[in-house]
Fold these 2 entries.
Entry 1:
Amino acid sequence: MDPSSPDRLNLLSFVPFRLNRLAAEFSNALAADYARFGIDIPEWRVLATLGMHAAPRSATYVVRCTRTHKSRISRAVGHLIELGLVERQEAPDDRREIMLQLTPRGREVYRELLPVLLAREEQLLSCLDASQRRALEGLLHTLEESLGLMRCEPD
């Protein structure tokens, strides 16, 4: 069978695979930085999502922002609570909904990690010049928008 035939897929040219592979490399590069605090990738995603906001957010909000399965977020929240980084609160308008908020220690860890992770991002993107970075940002935004991904903007 001809490898260039349309009934074969060159995985290394397949955009979904390429994006996934890049995401895995970026996540793994950052993971060592927050592993120092005893947290993993899903736990960092919870911490980072809550860290963008002054007010509590629901676990559902975290799931929607991070596109991480709710069971993984639930386990991550449980561990972050054990570490004293996150606390649960009842929603004022719906007692069945649980709201999440960083504790003072959680905010401290978030503030400590932020410059480290931003420096790591800068290092990972250092192969791109300013115009390439703007183009990448624009392309990512277009793809996210076309997929209807929620934009979780900071307060």
Entry 2:
Amino acid sequence: MSLTLRAASPLRIGLGLAAVGRPGYITLGRDTDLPAVRSAEALKERAFALMDAAYAQGVRYLDAARSYGLAETYLAEWLESRPDAKDVVVSSKWGYTYTADWRTQADVHEVKDHSIDAYDRQVAETRALLGDRLNLYQVHSVTPDSPALSDTALHERLAQLTEEGVTVGLSTSGPRQADTIRAALSVTVSGRPVFGSVQTTYNLLERSAGGALAEAHDAGCAVIVKEALANGRLAGPHVVAAEMGALREIAQETGASCDAVALAAVLAQPWADVVLSGAATVDQLTSNIAATHVHLSSAQLERLTELAQPAEAYWAQRSRLAWA
């Protein structure tokens, strides 16, 4: 089964819940974006406000993960309380376990495990919350050495989930995302592809997976873009470095915010089915959605390529972002 996300989510902007499902994350600006007291109830209220605003503005794709604290719980409760939202595509991910125990400062915030045992445990947990509302289940943060690409017994499990009507996908991370995507395209069970979607980091700073994403799209995979604002580095007050000049200039030329321009550049890629907003406030979400009305010229898109960094440099800088 494969998702036709452009038909399901014509706005092509989705909402990811990583920033509001747990008190600590690596997005910039959390001290001012989130409530002073980040209790479970306070973040639930924020998550509900974001999902309500997203749905009202046409967003029809919601993304969570087992490791996003209580994100799946918030999503399940929101869906239960909004019976009119039956047209939402619901995605979650397995492969990381949240270990920070609701702290912003922890030695380890999440632990990766792509084993069959981890899958069996986490798919049961996700199903207990989301039931038959789950449309897409992704292996979280796959890299070329992940057993998710080589474990044939796991592939059989994932193929069974597909038979149950859930699209199986994977998200990628690290400087070798393109290698991961191409390896995933060759994974089959009984001659049928296992992965029907790929969710990848792609933005004005990190463009290395673009060619592989085009190949995945041509092969019939749904393509979801995450971290399109580089964990906040391409948004608002954080666009200050001299090398970001082209982004600031084009924002002035179009009358749009920097985040809207950065997202519009990703939406301009013909292979991008859904681009995720990781907004932590309703104002940020509205600004992100405004990207759908920003039309960049070919010359402006070319100027924005100046911001691209080598993949290794980008991921090294990302790894230094503090959980806050």
